From TrEMBL:
Ranges of biased composition (kind: Low complexity): 32-51
Region Disordered, annotated ranges: 32-55
Residues covered by the Septum formation-related domain: 73-278
InterPro entries: Septum_form
Protein name: Septum formation
Length: 282
């Protein structure tokens, strides 16, 4: 008989730290575009900046970011050669919408930051390709940056979307090879696949690239309808049958096997992760 491994939803170490480890949305057009209009908000009237604005970042530029750098809203990390060591690549550069009803919103305001947090994960799908399932089972993620307040005051109105690969807890993987459309290429989903150091209900569980030492693998996705968080018990129950079936499908013995399920916590749901993952020993 199968051994059930279905813990209650709990905060994920990487996801809890990174607001960008959320649902990779549907494709959008173009690598340089404007954001949707922001909601009205009271602020100071628009004034024309007098200083020279900082130039927008270059699309397809590469950077050697540390994990902490990827968490920041702004960055001063210099450009690296893409054929050298690097951990991020810019895949989209767009224009912030900071003017609402003739008033200027601060670049670090909640509304402006929310615009970018929605735009960049959605645009990643168009860049890396693959199916929604393949993106959810990969370690490729989007991070984003805006100008500093001083740069914004000088007229900078760009935002930058980078792709990174999370190698493990607090670690980014070096990026090698072509990333554009990588999840649509043979071997691409496997190259960036998500594995675990233990079963998902273990205190030693940590997500890692499958090229790293591991003992479990994320094998399937359990989607939920978007809307209100369904609750811990509903999330837990939803994964039982599909994950047991998924575990059986990859097991050597269909009558004696292990499987695991990792459902989204309420915090992860609020951040956009409206799906769970099935796991199996690997």
């Amino acid at each position: 008989m199968s051994r059930r491994r279905a813990p209650l939803p709990r905060p994920l170490p990487v996801v809890a730290l990174l607001a960008f480890l959320v649902l990779l949305g549907a494709c959008t057009g173009g690598s340089t575009s404007e954001l949707p209009e922001a909601s009205p908000s009271s602020s100071a009237p628009v004034e024309r900046p007098s200083a020279t604005p900082v130039p927008a970042p270059e699309d397809r530029a590469c950077y050697d970011l540390a994990f902490a750098d990827a968490l920041a809203a702004t960055t001063a990390t210099p450009v690296s050669e893409c054929d050298g060591e690097h951990t991020s690549m810019t895949f989209s550069v767009g224009t912030l919408d900071t003017v609402v009803d003739g008033h200027l919103l601060a670049v670090d305001s909640e509304r402006v930051m929310a615009q970018v947090a929605e735009a960049c994960p959605a645009r990643l799908a168009d860049f890396v390709g693959g199916t929604l399932r393949e993106r959810r089972l990969s370690m490729l993620r989007a991070v984003w940056f805006t100008p500093t307040v001083d740069q914004s005051d000088a007229g900078a109105d760009w935002f930058r979307c980078d792709v990174i690969a999370v190698a493990g807890q607090d670690t980014l993987a070096p990026l090698t090879g072509r990333l554009s459309g990588v999840l649509s290429e043979p071997g691409g989903p496997e190259r960036w696949a998500m594995c675990g150091t233990d079963d998902p209900d273990s205190p030693d569980f940590e997500r890692v690239l499958c090229s790293q030492p591991h003992s479990w693998r994320a094998i399937e996705v359990v989607p939920f309808e978007e809307g209100r968080y369904p609750g811990v018990e509903a999330v837990r129950d939803a994964g039982q049958t599909p994950c047991e079936d998924a575990g059986r499908s990859v097991a050597d013995d269909a009558l004696n096997f292990q499987w695991g399920y990792e459902g989204p916590s309420k915090e992860q749901w609020a951040a956009g992760q409206t799906y769970g993952r099935c796991w199996a020993p690997d």
